[in-house]
Structure formats: structure tokens, C-alpha cells
UniProtKB/TrEMBL annotation:
<dbReference type="GO" id="GO:0003700">
    <property type="term" value="F:DNA-binding transcription factor activity"/>
</dbReference>
<keyword id="KW-0238">DNA-binding</keyword>
<feature type="domain" description="HTH araC/xylS-type">
    <location>
        <begin position="192"/>
        <end position="294"/>
    </location>
</feature>
<protein>
    <submittedName>
        <fullName>AraC family transcriptional regulator</fullName>
    </submittedName>
</protein>
<keyword id="KW-0804">Transcription</keyword>
<dbReference type="Pfam" id="PF12833">
    <property type="entry name" value="HTH_18"/>
</dbReference>
<dbReference type="InterPro" id="IPR009057">
    <property type="entry name" value="Homeodomain-like_sf"/>
</dbReference>
<dbReference type="InterPro" id="IPR018060">
    <property type="entry name" value="HTH_AraC"/>
</dbReference>
<keyword id="KW-0805">Transcription regulation</keyword>
<dbReference type="GO" id="GO:0043565">
    <property type="term" value="F:sequence-specific DNA binding"/>
</dbReference>
<dbReference type="InterPro" id="IPR020449">
    <property type="entry name" value="Tscrpt_reg_AraC-type_HTH"/>
</dbReference>
Amino acid sequence: MEEIIKIESIDTYNKLRGVSTRHPLITVVDLSKANRMPARTFNFGLYGVYLKDQMCGELRYGRRHYDYQEGTLVFIGPGQIVGMNTKERSFEANGWGLLFHPDLIKGTHLGRHIQEYSFFSYDVNEALHLSEEEREILLDGFRKIQAELGRAIDKHSKKLVTSGIELFLNYCNRFYDSQFITRDNVHKGVIEKFESLLQDYFTTEQGQLPSVSWCAGQLNLSANYFGDLVKKETGRSAQEYIQDKVIDMAKERVFDLEKSISEVAYELGFKYPAHFTRLFKQKVGVTPVEYRKLN
């Protein structure tokens, strides 16, 4: 079994890349001047953002491939496993890398809101494509953070560095929103497939409610990317979409007078009928029993 190498500190990472450590909790690396990562598997204990600053040809989304021209951003979060090999190096191109330890943002505004940047849990094949203008904005962000790290550490350093990272990530959020819209060919049909998946799921009576992660896996997407895509396309979270589908199916089934409300709940995958009744009333305004009588 292959050994997984843990990268739990900035210094460990910098030594692998052959660069000096200016700050114990953050590093900005010009990949063209750094050593390549060895062909091993790593467990990152850091947040990382990698910019491939070159034309890369095509990127795989799920089981299909799509062209892009101006490079891409790939994100990793603490606990993610990243495999490097000699043939396909996900992060090994000329460009930039920004890595920071979770301790850097403890007690900061960014630390309290880091979970809002869901792209740190996206798969590599769900990377952020960049236009030339977007690429230049993010390159400027890398350089400004790097310039601040070149200064002597003082009482302002942490605030300025974390503010720079937060601004950088906010631009990434904006560009991802744009990508969800402009790269419609990548996402075309995902909502339709999601709807069909739920229809088939309830038709076959699986005995439990489908989770967002299960649906995402069936569509070859990471849970966070899938959830963000559904939100952008429908205005509802993936969980809300599933719940609405459940209630839509329930409205039909409660009219079968040969079945009790509990039996309907079990058929739809609820472990406890009381949970079904509570969700039904929340969505419809009345209980299943009341709905059956009213109609």
C-alpha cells in the first residue's frame, strides 16, 4: 500500500518545493522557480490555491472534456488527498501557488467565514477557468500577498495578509458565479438529470431519502460543486430541491386511502413518520392527514 505523505506545515511544503520560508503560516510560490512535487500521494493539512499560468488544452468535467484557453485555478482544503504522478500533474505547470495554514486565519473575519468558500471542497475536475482579465486580477492578488510577506512581520501583518487572501477568494467567488453562467455547455442538462435521478429513485422505493452527496456522486460531481450549481440554476439548495420533490411525490401518494400516512412515509424513505409529517406541514401548510381530507 502506497505511503501517504502528510504536509502539515508551510515549512514542510516549502522544503519540498526548494523555496525559503518567509512566514511560518503562509507561502506564495512562483512555480516556474520551484522544484516539482515528487510523484507521491499527499495529505494536505493546508489551504491551497494553484494557478496554472499557461494554455492547458482541455479539462475533464465528470466523464467529458471541455476546452479552455487561459489557464485555470485549482483549490485544495485541509484533509484532501492529492496524488502526483509523472504523466499527469494536476498542479504542476508554470504559474503560482498560494498555501496557508488554518491557524493563520483563526480569530479573523476570514476564519469565521472560510466555509463560505465552498470551492475548497470541489474536485480537481471542477476547477475555475479564467479569462485573460480574470487571470490578471488574480495574478495581481498573488503578487500583493507575496510583497507583504517580504516585509518584516509587525502588528499589522496578519490583518493585511488575511485581508489580501479574503479579497483574492472573493474574486474567485465572483469568477465562479460567472463560470456557472458563461460555461453553460458544461452544466447543460445537470438539473434535468437530477430531476430524472430523483424520479427513478422514488419509483424504485429505495427505503431511504437520497442525500445531496449521493446525487452528486451519481452525476460525477463533488457535493459542494453540485450544490452550488443547483443553487445558481434553481434558486434553491440541493437539499431543498430534494425535499420539494419528496413532498410532490407525497401529495400523490397520500390519496391512496388503502395506505396509512405512516406507510407513505416509509415508502418515501422516512425512518420516522413524524419527520415526514413535520416536513409536509412545513412545505404545504397542513399535515398529510389534513391534506388528504381537504382534497
